[in-house]
Design brief:
mainly alpha, 11 helices, 0% strand, cell membrane, ABC2_TM_bact-type, Nod_factor_ABC_transporter, ABC-type transporter activity
């Protein structure tokens, strides 16, 4: 869908005086535009479709036997819920690179000349990326079941784990959109993103239990939101361990990140110069 096509239904009041119904129409049009881009550029879904399969196979068959004394099926049940926590982070980083690239191509400048709420552009991206996170999580679960993952609770608990993972991943999207608008190039976004991702991913309970970690690292993992999300997903799918506490902490992180970072991202979008 071209920018010119979108302009017609978006004529109206200037930014800041747009009513809720008009804002929803603008978001809907932008969501359709972003979805159409994926349709015509199928490689945009490559990370969502391929990365869960690659990670599941790689870590299970390279590290799984060593971590569980050769019992890879045990590691699958530990690792798959943890990987649900990591998927959103990987996809969130890709949107930061995409936002930076859109600014460099002038796409965002055209959006900012339209009489639409500035937040609608970012919210539309958030919705589409949340959909990609959901697809990625479903692919991961299918791969997990093929590899022997056992759901010991029920479909309601599994859906709760998926929803929690997507919700938290969506909150991370605001951080990477802000990062994408703050870094000068896509390469800079990628480099800074990896500096954020690596400690969060490997300094967590995603890949291995924290009991054998040194005290200083174990203290970091206890405050790492990815650890709490991984623990919540495991408790929801296995029926073992506390559920309420890690779920509430994860929800708290998601709400806090959104409340703090989303206004900063919208302000940066409004004030950024190309």
């Amino acid at each position: 869908m071209s920018t010119a096509t979108m302009t017609a239904p978006m004529r109206g009041k200037s930014d800041g005086r747009i009513g809720p119904r008009a804002n929803l129409r603008h978001i809907g049009a932008l969501v359709r535009r972003n979805a159409m881009q994926i349709r015509y550029e199928p490689f945009a879904m490559f990370d969502a479709l391929a990365m869960p399969i690659v990670f599941a196979l790689l870590f299970t068959y390279v590290f799984g036997g060593a971590m569980t004394g050769g019992n890879r099926s045990e590691y699958v049940n530990y690792f798959i819920p943890g990987l649900m926590a990591m998927g959103g982070l990987n996809i969130a980083m890709s949107i930061g690179i995409g936002v930076n690239d859109d600014f460099s191509k002038g796409v965002m400048d055209r959006f900012r000349t339209m009489p639409i709420a500035r937040s609608s552009v970012l919210i539309a991206k958030l919705i589409v990326e949340s959909g990609r996170m959901l697809v990625s999580t479903l692919i991961l679960l299918i791969m997990g079941f093929i590899m022997g993952f056992e759901l010991e609770t029920g479909p309601v608990e599994l859906l709760a784990a998926v929803a929690l993972s997507v919700l938290f991943g969506s909150s991370l999207t605001w951080i990477f959109m802000l990062l994408g608008m703050s870094m000068p190039t896509p390469q800079a976004v990628s480099g800074m993103g990896f500096l954020v991702m690596m400690p969060l991913q490997f300094g967590s309970s995603i890949f291995a239990p924290t009991a054998t970690m040194p005290d200083w690292l174990r203290a970091f993992t206890e405050y790492n939101p990815l650890s709490r999300l991984a623990d919540a997903a495991r408790a929801l799918t296995s029926g073992h361990g506390a559920v309420a506490e890690p779920v509430m902490v994860t929800l708290g992180w998601a709400v806090a990140l959104t409340v703090v970072v989303a206004p900063l991202a919208v302000r940066r979008f409004r004030n950024k110069t190309s």
